Fold each of these.
Amino acid sequence: MKHKNLLLIGLIMLFSSLQAQTIANHALGLRLGDNGGVGTEISYQMKLSDGNRLEGDLGWASRRDGAIMKLTGLYQWVGPFEGHLNYYYGAGAGLVQANNDNEDINGTNAFAAGILGLEYLFALPIQLALDLRPELNFGKNNDALNLDLALSIRYLF
């Protein structure tokens, strides 16, 4: 019985320390949204300081009219909102490679991106986030603004 109580106290302390952490050292998961035609992206976050992190996202899709691949890098500022809820915002850039029958989105294009979102940190090492990522594409065939709304789930470690 004594060992069970010690184990329970240890688990409570572990989960409490995870909740108190504003930014995890690392987070890995999925970002689910439109993402400029890509759909799902693999998402990785790395803590730089108590209020800053880097995020890298890689997405790809194979469709009837061709394939598309997208790589995004973002620098983010993160702060506490309330309880286990954080806000974040940032900016970055990326590349998109499309091989489609539709000539308007064919080839390689660069884009600038911003991000604004909220994330919830659960007692388990899980983060759930909702964000808006506007992207301004630069290229001979695709000077357009895309608004990408996405839901992300990541494992914190």
Amino acid sequence: MSRFTALLAAVVILAQSPVGHGANWTEGVQYARITPPQQTTVGTGKVEVMEVFSYGCPACNAFQPVMELLRHALPPSAQFVYLPAAFNAAEDWPMFQRAYLAAQALGVADKAHQAMFDAVWKTGELATFTPGTNRIKDPLPSIADAARFYARVTGINPQQFVAMANSFSIDGKIRAADAQIAAMHVGETPTLIVNGKYRVIRSELKGNEELIDLVRYLVAKEGGT
């Protein structure tokens, strides 16, 4: 049995058990309250679980299996959303932010989410580093490169994608994303936000099982079932 399979089995057992570890979690230690709370984008009766991320972030790529474990562990009322950050211009994060928001506006972001990580970190199609080195590529992948990727994976017209990515609408979404990330005091990726109210402090957690348990607790705290 692989380590991931074993952890998944443990998470399935955890998901079937009541949320009873609230006493382990202290506001201001393992999670922080966001003031003022941020508006969520999910429907009535849903609890938003947000990942602030970047496709250019190696830690975010490594975190994707944990996100899959969370999907198995959380109740049906929890709904995942993603907010792209642009912290690291030297490694193309602003381009990836723009590309994600364009893909989201065109309705293809979810379909290509894992494939985009793979294109950066596995196949090298959109890699930001020269293979086998720590040297940043010159030039870095462009929006046109991302458009070709999305065309291949989702069938979206690449010209339509580039036009959307360079539109005033996406410029506005970028400003809004940057402002929201600042308002939530997010300084690193990946960061999890529950229902616009609570920021998970991963550095205070001992491992993935604790992280999953804490997110379950916060979702339940917001009425998630």
Amino acid sequence: MQNHIDHTNTIIELNRVCFSYTEEEVIKDVTLEIHKGDYVGIIGPNGGGKSTLLKLMLGILKPNKGTIKLFGIDVKEFKDWSKIGYVPQRAHIELNFPATVEEIVAMGRYGKRGLFHFPTKEDKEQTLLALQQVDMLGFKNRQIGDLSGGQQQRVFIARALAAQPQVIFLDEPTVGVDIKTQKQFYEFLRKLNKDLNLTLALSSHELDVVAHEATELVYINRTIVYYGNPEEFLKGAYFHELIGKGGLHH
């Protein structure tokens, strides 16, 4: 296992975090840092704890042991959630909801303004800017259910971007889309990461694509097996051992 420890520009810090839904630990003794500008791919087997790790960092789940800090503040005390965007799995989103693309993205401003405030000129500008940033401005009047899977995911990223976050979490963002769309989508995320200096953390079982786009790779199987440079992981003996055992999608 390789550790990447650099305490400058740390956005998220986990220290010896453990979590269990029942008696058996799903996350065990995880220590991890995510820094400003990172594009972190979290990979591992089904049931290995990828999505659970994201939910712990988002404060959706509470650790049984250890500490989690967001922007230097304990997650239990953290209040500035507009700094953090979240794109859930498409399977968890009602796509038949009768709303236009622009209306969906405008929902991302609620965290800034509150649910019952009238949209301001700035809200409108940030909504359109977010659509422009994901190359979906021309689709603003389309119904969300009429778009392809890849287009829908871009819209949900725009919704997260509308709040002007500093980091976005994505949970299995390419479930249900074809291989070509997956590759285009992860390339698109890399462009956002570079052009906007946007920190990204995503869980995925698509190792091949993620490893070629992410700047940092976390392999988790309840505990962290590897954390570091994706290219070094792909060259390493451990990766080839996992492939041989069928422990990864490849």
